Amino acid sequence: MDTMRDRFVPVVSRLLDEDPRVAVVLAEIGAASLAEAQLRHPERVINVGIREQLLVGAGAGLALTGMRPVLHTFASFLVERPFEQVKLDLGHQGVGAVLVSAAASFDWPAGGLTHMAPGDVALLDTLDGWTVHVPGHPDEAETLLRHAVAAGDDKVYVRLSVQSNADALPVDGERFLPVREGRSGVVVAVGPMLDSVLDATEGLDVTVLYATTVRPFDATALRRATRTAGTDVVLVEPYLAGTSTAAANDALADVPHRVLGLGVARPELRRYGTVEEHLAAHGLDVRSLRECIDGFVRGGRAGTRG
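Structure (tokenized):
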């Protein structure tokens, strides 16, 4: 199966052919893969070199002229390094763009912390008006990328990862999808965490919701699920643990509830390892997830992890 990033290149190439408003801005990463598209549309495929602040600034300039810019590089270089430009050039000027990242939280462990961005969604949460898509399968990445480009002039972040679920689901860029029903709690699985969550909750009496669009947070779906499953909620996110706990708390503010946020922990892992080893170290492997989720919905102390 191809990866989400493998899917990005042909999809954005077709979007360039289909829509004269679409422009792609790169900071060296991905430029070789889009060389053919650049030959067809030299004025709308722009490589600014290793200048990530300029990447965002150029995208904002294109948006000011009425274009729909798609900006692409690793998440740490797209959200963290040029954050001031994301805040000012896009947000302060009131223009939109589609930011499409690669590498996720630790997709390339050998790159070290410079190429890891577990805090990207939490950082965008400090700004107003961002839509955030976290696909869990290449097919979903294609759907959500097309949705993002077509979303008027909104500010949209599409978070791609090499981690993937086995099967795609019919995502719509808005709602959480119920994939399992139970009566002893609700588990929200974000993007590529779905398969692990389903394995971890096998035999547990819990409802599982699948989230590929996490901002805006689908409070309606969560509230609906808690009516039959109870108000113990576990969030399993492939980025910084607790990123969405405030959103879940706000959704259930008028009812007694408990929320547990599982995700990437704050301490830095200083050994490269593999993606699977990083998942286990952060408690996002199937065994650790089952221990935490089962302990939490039973009211035990195991639910305090993360």
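Confidence is low (pLDDT under 50) at residues 300-306. The longest helix spans residues 4-18.
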